[in-house]
Each structure stands twice: as structure tokens, then as C-alpha cells.
């Protein structure tokens, strides 16, 4: 068995690879990592935060629409489209798949199936959120350690 | 290259080198803030000047006000005015910008209906840097002919 790396960057890379292997992340996330924002090294963390906040809002709106006596499928479809778009942009593969399945049920106007599949969307969101939070934390530590190293350099 | 209905498969898969062009402008039309941001960043990496619009009506209004863009990235499903309606309206106005549709993965007929509205190309969202560089190469070739 290979020894685990203690290098924070290697640990982050290994973690991301594991998330790929589990289907939680896809190539779209790698595209984000490849983006360079020289002025803002915390760009990826901000993007993750943006996705999480938006997704929580969309999920709340879908929850409301599903809870109505007369289910508002139009709102569900609209918010689901936005949720799918954001999820695709961040590279959340399994969550995106769950959203696609829910979309079919919403198009069919099948409330019971929507309830069942929405549960899966929320589960996949929680999984993806935990994954992204971990990545965000690891990146913050790497950035902070990098800043401290530069400050220790002799003048 | 306006509304010729070309499919994405008709693009030449050539190198994206030397596509940085500071004279090109782009409009990103998408109701998703995250996707607007991503496409905005990707396009700016290639030196384009980028504006964003959150739905088709905002995009059409920009053109009505006299704005012009070399490239328009048009999402399909948007509130107020969707991408199909916006594309039809822009072509009816005589807009000759390269309009590239971006769609989600589901719906086999989704891209075809969108193409028929007057797109030049249509791809799944989000656009990758590779696709963007190929589109810019096509834009540069088109501009050289003019």
C-alpha cells in the first residue's frame, strides 16, 4: 500500500481524484481549477460559495412548489433548470444526473415521483456540498500556508 | 455566417492558438449567475470585451439600443424571453453576430429546434475553453473575409 502524501497540494489532488472516481465531480470542475484569476487566488472558493448559496435557494423554491396543494410544476421546472445549469457549471455530476431525472418527472406532472426524486437531488446536493466544502477548506489552507511562507522570506 | 443553421459538427477542429483578439466583443445571455460568470471569465481570458444579460429580452433590448457584439452566447431556457424567441427576434432585426446556443444535455430535439431559430452553432453547457477557442478562430476567419 502506497504511503499517503503529507503534501497539502497532493492531498487536495488525491481528494479531487477520489471525487471523480465516485462520480461526484466531473471534468467541468477541472475546467474551473484551470481558470486563472491572478488578482484573486480565492476565486474557486468564491465560486463554490456562489454555487452553494444559489443551489440552496433553488432547492427551497422547489420545496415550496412541491408542497402546494396544487403542485406548481411550472416553478419546479423553472428552478430545476437553473439548478441544473449551476450544477453543470460547478461540475457536480451525480447531482446533475439526479436533476435530469427529476426534470422528467416534473414534465410528466408526477408528484409522487417528483417527491421521490427530489429527495435524491437533496441527498446528492448534500454530498456535493460536503465535497466542495472540503476542497474549499483545503485550498484555503494551501493559500494561507503559501502567504505565511512568503512572509517568512528574509528581506 | 448569419443563421446558416450549421451544426456543431461542421466546425473544423483546429488549433485554438493565436485566437487572442482584443477587438472582439461578446454578449453572454443566461439566467444562471454562475454560468454567466464562468462564460464571462472564459471569454475574457481570450481578450474579449464581455457584457452579460440575464434573459433574452435584455439581450434584444441591448441590440435595439444600438449595441453590437461579434459573438452571442445564448442560453435556451430563460424567463421573460427564452433563447429561441430571442434568437428569432435578433435575426429578424438583421443581426449578423455569431449566435451560439448553449443547452442542457437532455432533449434530443432541443438543439435542432434551437438551431432552426437562427443559431450558427449549438453546444452543451458549459462551454469548454477548447470550444470557445474554436469559435473564436471561426470568428477571426470570418472577420478577415469582411
Topology, element by element:
The complex is a heterodimer of chains A (155) and B (146).
Chain A (H helix, E strand, L loop, with lengths): L7 H14 L5 H8 L8 H25 L5 H18 L2 H16 L2 H41 L4
Helix pairs in contact in A: 1-6, 3-4, 3-6, 4-5, 5-6
Chain B lengths: L24 E5 L3 H13 L3 E5 L2 H9 L6 E5 L7 H10 L5 E6 L6 H7 L4 E4 L4 H17 L1
Parallel strand pairs in B: 1-2, 1-3, 3-4, 4-5
Helix pairs in contact in B: 2-3
State the name of the first-level CATH class of chain B: Alpha Beta
Major sheet of chain B? 5 strands, parallel
Order of helices and strands of chain A: HHHHHH
Helix fraction bin of chain A: over 70%
Number of DSSP-assigned strands of chain A: 0
Per CATH, the architecture of the domain at 42-137 in chain A is: Up-down Bundle
The number of domains of chain B: 1
Structure report:
The complex is a heterodimer of chains A (155) and B (146). Chain A is mainly α. Chain A has a domain at 42-137: Four Helix Bundle (Hemerythrin (Met), subunit A) (Up-down Bundle). Chain A contains six helices and no strands. Chain A is elongated and about 55 Å long. Chain A starts with 7 loop residues before the first helix and ends with a helix. Chain B is of the alpha/beta class and 146 residues long. Chain B has one domain (23-141): Response regulator (Rossmann fold, 3-Layer(aba) Sandwich). Chain B contains five helices and five strands, in the order E-H-E-H-E-H-E-H-E-H. Chain B has a five-stranded parallel β-sheet, sandwiched between helices. In chain B, helix 1 (33-45) links the parallel strand 1 and strand 2 (49-53). In chain B, helix 2 (56-64) runs parallel beside helix 3 (83-92). Mean pLDDT of chain B is 83; it is low at 1-9 and 12-19. Classes of the chains: A mainly alpha (155), B alpha/beta (146).
Amino acid at each position: 500500500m502506497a504511503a499517503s502524501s503529507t503534501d497539502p497540494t497532493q492531498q487536495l489532488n488525491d481528494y479531487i481524484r477520489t471525487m471523480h472516481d465516485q462520480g461526484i465531480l466531473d471534468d467541468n470542475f477541472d475546467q474551473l481549477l484551470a481558470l486563472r484569476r491572478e488578482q484573486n487566488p480565492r476565486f474557486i472558493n468564491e465560486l463554490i460559495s456562489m454555487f452553494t448559496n444559489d443551489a440552496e435557494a433553488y432547492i427551497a423554491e422547489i420545496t415550496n412548489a412541491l408542497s402546494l396543494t396544487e403542485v406548481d410544476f411550472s416553478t419546479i421546472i423553472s428552478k430545476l433548470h437553473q439548478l441544473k445549469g449551476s450544477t453543470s457549471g460547478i461540475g457536480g455530476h451525480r447531482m446533475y444526473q439526479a436533476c435530469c431525472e427529476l426534470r422528467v418527472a416534473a414534465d410528466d406532472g408526477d408528484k409522487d415521483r417528483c417527491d421521490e426524486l427530489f429527495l435524491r437531488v437533496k441527498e446528492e446536493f448534500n454530498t456535493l456540498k460536503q465535497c466542495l466544502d472540503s476542497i474549499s477548506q483545503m485550498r484555503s489552507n494551501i493559500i494561507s500556508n503559501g502567504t505565511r511562507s512568503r512572509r517568512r522570506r528574509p528581506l | 455566417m448569419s443563421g446558416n443553421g450549421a451544426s456543431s459538427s461542421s466546425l473544423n477542429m483546429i488549433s485554438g492558438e493565436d485566437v487572442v483578439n482584443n477587438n472582439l466583443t461578446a454578449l453572454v445571455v443566461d439566467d444562471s449567475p454562475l454560468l454567466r460568470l464562468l462564460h464571462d471569465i472564459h471569454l475574457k481570458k481570450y481578450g474579449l470585451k464581455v457584457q452579460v444579460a440575464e434573459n433574452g429580452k435584455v439581450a434584444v433590448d441591448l441590440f435595439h439600443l444600438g449595441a453590437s457584439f461579434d459573438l452571442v452566447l445564448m442560453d435556451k431556457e430563460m424567463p421573460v424571453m427564452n433563447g429561441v424567441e430571442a434568437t428569432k427576434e435578433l435575426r429578424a432585426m438583421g443581426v449578423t453576430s455569431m449566435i451560439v446556443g448553449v443547452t442542457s444535455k437532455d432533449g434530443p430535439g432541443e438543439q435542432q429546434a434551437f438551431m432552426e431559430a437562427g443559431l450558427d452553432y449549438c453546444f452543451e453547457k458549459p462551454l469548454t475553453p477548447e470550444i470557445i477557442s474554436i469559435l473564436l478562430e471561426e470568428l477571426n476567419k470570418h472577420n478577415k473575409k469582411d
